[in-house]
What we know:
Layout: H1 16-46, E1 55-59, H2 67-78, H3 87-95, E2 100-108, E3 112-119, E4 122-126, E5 130-133, E6 138-139, E7 152-154, H4 160-174, E8 181-186, E9 191-196, E10 201-206, H5 210-226, E11 231-235, E12 243-246, H6 249-252
Parallel strand pairs: 1-3, 4-7, 7-8, 10-11
Antiparallel strand pairs: 2-3, 4-5, 5-6, 8-9, 9-10, 11-12
Helix pairs in contact: 2-3
Amino acid sequence: MARRKVQRRLPWWREPRLHRALRTLLLAAALIMLVVAGQGAVTYLMEPDTLPVRTVTLEGELRHLHPDTLSAVVTPHLQAGFLALDLRQMEASVQALPWVRGVWLRREWPDRIVIQIEEQVPVARWGNDALVNQYGELFHPALSEAPEGLPFLEGRQGRQRQLMERFLAVQARLADVGLEVSGLREDARRSWVIQLEDGGQVLMGRGMDTDRLDRLVRMYPRLEAHRDHPIKRIDMRYTNGIAVAWQSPERDGQ
């Protein structure tokens, strides 16, 4: 007669399911402790006094942006500390300065912030409230901060590059007869006026008519030889000739 096998039940504390549940609970508890510890460590590191910014390094040559102006914008952001410092906000604050064309910031462990600045390079005045940079872009610093001797341009916004190119061409062409050009204006109808260094003006009419400019170069030496007073205005808008107005003797004697 065959014997029946009797299965013995394990005690409850040795049940595999219980062991698996305990391991899961222990793992979850360990993870929670790690998260809490990590949060505490992050909170500690983000405190301004834990990792303060000790050094700010400036890269880029500054000719017009005053260091005190830059410092006044940057310093409030540094109070947040090395890790908590919001580089984007700080970058936006520096970018808002009128003499700044571009700015890039980076952290260098453990306590340095590097600020790289591309400063605006003025090449001309634009109207009464702006300057033009070397890319034909307008920017708006205090005009009292602009360097002396910049040419004066005036026209519709968006025409800066074209007027600057025209100014350079006219300046080079008229230099051949000793005429110094200080500026250029273009009205809404694209009629343009050459402003001379001595206060005189040359009315050129619409468009870039090189024939008129060549005629001025040919005729100016004769005007120069026979004039008694400085030229007030030369009107080149005629087909074959020019009209000249002279400054009054009273103005000449001032």
